[in-house]
Design a protein that fits this description.
This protein is globular. It folds into two domains: about 100 residues, 3-Layer(aba) Sandwich (Rossmann fold); about 170 residues, Glycogen Phosphorylase B (Rossmann fold, 3-Layer(aba) Sandwich), CATH 3.40.50.2000. The mean pLDDT is about 95. With about 325 residues, the chain is of the alpha/beta class. The chain contains 13 helices and ten strands. The chain has a six-stranded parallel beta sheet with strand order 7-6-5-8-9-10, with helices on both faces. It has a four-stranded parallel beta sheet with strand order 1-2-3-4.
């Protein structure tokens, strides 16, 4: 495993405390380590996001793989792929350096096809044994949101939806797990909306996330951009019905009125109405939960592990 932001040797580590300077200092060290390690690898599995992150980390890895004649998998995971490929003319040619272009969802495979790129999907996997399935009856107005507090995840829409929910259910509660640049603004929005029983928990270790799913009864999700959020699968595994915007690849894992409820992006009224439907129609909510739990089987290591092993073996010439 090679991090894209490796710690520099002791005497140089202070450089990584200075904004911009840390990038200038770290990238050469990362590339040098790539050059040293690549000859000893059969396959380079390269994780990728979009825009500058794509230039700084995956691009050098793809070039190094080609220089040393090593096979490469570009594992692209960013829901902003269409924007990236449209605005960055170097993106598609760089992606073609990879031997395989793999993504967690069929959504990005379809996006890549628009730009003449052939991709395949292998789902994210979730260790569902870490999450306790709990049958809820009745469903309480206790909601969970656990996305990063960044603009693309639009947690403000969740807060505005919750304001409408709380007007109907005064005792409603909302747990918000996650950190990010928007936290202070979102806390201010909560005060402006006059919300009660909203708790900003900050970043929560993954080892404790099962406790939050267990404490809540309904999962709320309102991103503007997304690919395949693992948090939705974790909600499925925990017995929470999901009300979410239909951003990006979410409709590829949430079937409307079968495994969850989908609403338009940026529409807090529709999101609130979807969430309250679970409270009004308890039998419907139970049916959604049961069907979502069954879908979890697609996202276990047992379901996806053989696909990765087969791909590695094929590229390494060991199939």
């Amino acid at each position: 495993m090679l991090p894209v932001d490796p710690l520099l040797p002791g005497p140089l580590r202070w450089l990584q405390k200075v904004k911009y300077l840390r990038t200038i200092a770290t990238i050469p060290w990362y590339v040098a380590t790539l050059v040293l390690r690549a000859p000893f690898c059969d396959v380079l599995h390269i994780f990728a996001a979009s825009s500058w992150a794509f230039v700084l980390a995956p691009t050098p890895a793809l070039i190094v793989a080609r220089l040393f004649g090593r096979k490469s998998i570009l594992n692209y995971r960013d829901g902003r792929a269409e924007y990236h490929l449209t605005r960055w003319p170097t993106a598609a040619p760089t992606m073609r350096l990879a031997d395989r272009l793999v993504t967690p969802s069929g959504y990005l495979v379809d996006v890549f096809a628009l730009f003449g790129l052939k991709g395949q999907y292998i789902h994210n996997f979730v260790d569902t044994t870490r999450f306790r399935f709990r049958q809820r009856r009745p469903f309480r107005p206790v909601f969970l949101s656990n996305r990063s507090l960044e603009p693309l995840y639009n947690t403000g829409c969740t807060l505005r939806a919750f304001a409408r929910i709380q007007a109907r259910y005064p005792d409603a509660q909302l747990l918000i797990a996650g950190g990010g640049s928007q936290r202070k603004a979102l806390e201010a929005l909560g005060r402006e909306l006059g919300l009660r029983n909203v708790e900003f928990l900050g970043p929560v270790p993954h080892s404790r996330m099962h406790e939050l799913y267990d404490a809540a009864d309904i999962y709320l999700n309102s991103p503007n951009v997304d690919n395949m959020p693992v948090s939705i699968i974790e909600a499925y595994a925990s017995g929470l019905p999901v009300a979410t915007t239909k951003a990006g690849g979410i409709p590829y894992i949430v079937r409307h009125e079968e495994t969850g409820l989908l609403t338009p992006v940026g529409d807090p009224e529709a999101l609130a109405e979807a969430a309250m439907r679970f409270l009004r129609e308890q039998d419907f909510a139970e049916r959604i939960v049961a069907q979502a739990r069954e879908q979890c089987n697609q996202y276990t290591w047992e379901a996806v592990g053989d696909q990765w092993i087969s791909l590695y073996s094929e590229l390494a010439g060991r199939g």
